[in-house]
Write a structure and sequence with these properties.
The complex is a heterodimer.
Chain A: H1 2-20, E1 28-35, E2 40-43, E3 48-50, E4 58-64, H2 69-82, H3 85-88, E5 90-97, H4 101-111, E6 118-120, H5 124-129, E7 136-140, E8 145-150, H6 159-169
Parallel strand pairs in A: 4-5, 5-6
Antiparallel strand pairs in A: 1-8, 2-3, 2-6, 4-7, 7-8
Chain B: H1 2-33, E1 38-42, E2 46-53, H2 55-64, H3 69-75, E3 78-87, E4 93-96, E5 101-104, E6 107-109, H4 114-124, H5 128-137, E7 142-145, E8 150-158, E9 164-172, E10 181-188
Antiparallel strand pairs in B: 1-2, 2-3, 3-8, 4-7, 4-9, 5-6, 5-9, 9-10
Helix pairs in contact in B: 2-3
The chains are: A alpha+beta, B alpha+beta.
């Protein structure tokens, strides 16, 4: 009976530990934290958004271009995810790389009309972030450090991703 | 009568079958030796494909992104191949196009690098935003691929009317000191001549 109780305790402790450190969903890599480069850009309505460590929230920073096939496929799921911004307690920075307003506007109108992308007009902000390719996503902690990178496009609306991002929002990475 | 028919059939068989086989072999040889627009290699280490793009295809792509005529003209002076690579190892796989070789009957040439293109754009006064977009459409000069990760983009070579081979070398390991792998694509060719 004692052995059973001990085993049960161990199992519960293990379960609790793993509940706090969930397995990473496919494509998300934990990296050695490094400071996020500066990001201050205007959206299609010419409003400026700045990645700011004072908000106390995690940030979802995503780089894309209309000519990139995986970006096109991924964008609707990012739109769905961004609608949960307040529940997930995440700030979204969706950045178009080096395309004109007209191209971005007409692309988003057909693919993800609720997204108001930021415009990296000359592509230089994107280059500072050194993405591995497009699309590219970074998860930045409330202290302004990049903690996770995401390889390629993902189905962000799937439960494993929303669960993971929700845990980040609760500051339980 | 039946004997005659049999003889005729036998004679025809002697001529027709070798002719058919020769014809099949000729067609097969032509197909395998002709430059193929898409080739792929799939082994335990990596999956890689290479697809030749015509100057007009590339010009249309960049014109659609509002590239200026001087930039389009520069793209017509190179041959474009879209490359896809997937790392099948449980280890880091590195590609570095500066070590890749283009083997022609007249000697070896190197693929164009991002530095080569930057020089071209600066000489032609091409705006930064077009330089940036162009850069993102190229396969990075050098990149590590994590297990299962894939990478895609164009490689460019100085335009030639010769058929050539591409010898691509890959390093492995986080420190690039692991085993090296090589793959070779034969019978590659620029798809067409640049528009005048």
């Amino acid at each position: 009976m004692k052995a059973f109780a001990c085993t049960l305790c161990l199992w519960l402790i293990t379960l609790n530990v793993y509940a706090d450190t969930p397995a990473l969903p496919k494509g998300i890599l934990k990296i050695t934290p490094r400071p996020a480069p500066a990001l201050s850009l205007q959206n299609l309505d010419e409003e400026t958004f700045t990645l700011d460590s004072k908000t106390g929230r995690w940030a979802f920073v995503h780089f894309w271009a209309s000519w990139c096939g995986p970006c096109r496929r991924e964008m609707p799921s990012i739109q769905a995810l961004s609608k949960q911004s307040s529940t997930l307690k995440l700030d979204f920075f969706i950045v178009n790389t080096a395309e004109s307003e007209d191209v971005v506007f007409s692309f988003l109108a057909s693919v993800a009309p609720d997204i108001n992308s930021l415009l990296d007009r000359d592509g230089l902000v994107t280059e500072k972030w050194q993405p591995r390719g497009l699309p590219s996503t970074y998860l930045v902690d409330p202290e302004g450090n990049i903690r996770y990178i995401v390889l390629g496009g993902q189905d962000w609306h799937k439960p494993e991703y929303t669960r993971f991002l929700g845990q980040l929002g609760q500051n339980r990475p | 009568m039946n004997v005659n028919r049999l003889r005729i059939t036998q004679r025809l068989s002697r001529f027709i079958f070798p002719l058919l086989i020769s014809g099949f072999l000729a067609v097969y040889t032509m197909q395998t030796s002709a430059a193929s627009p898409r080739q792929k290699i799939d082994n335990k280490q990596l999956k890689m494909s290479i697809t030749a793009r015509s100057a007009n295809q590339m010009a249309a792509f960049y014109e659609g992104r509002e590239f200026p005529p001087s930039a389009i003209e520069a793209t017509r002076e190179a041959c474009f191949f879209t490359v896809g690579i997937r790392n099948r190892l449980n280890d880091t796989l590195w590609h570095d196009i500066t070590t890749w070789q283009i083997l022609t009957t007249d000697g070896n040439i190197k693929p164009l690098t991002q530095a080569d293109w930057k020089k071209t754009w600066q000489q032609r006064g091409v705006e930064q935003r077009f330089q940036s977009t162009f850069r993102w459409t190229l396969l990075p000069d050098s990149r590590d691929l994590r297990p299962g990760e894939q990478q895609g983009g164009n490689i460019t070579v100085p335009r030639t009317d010769k058929t050539f081979s591409l010898l691509a070398t890959f390093d492995t390991g986080a420190d690039r000191k692991g085993k090296k792998y090589k793959v070779k694509f034969k019978n590659l060719r620029c798809l067409d001549e640049p528009a005048q």
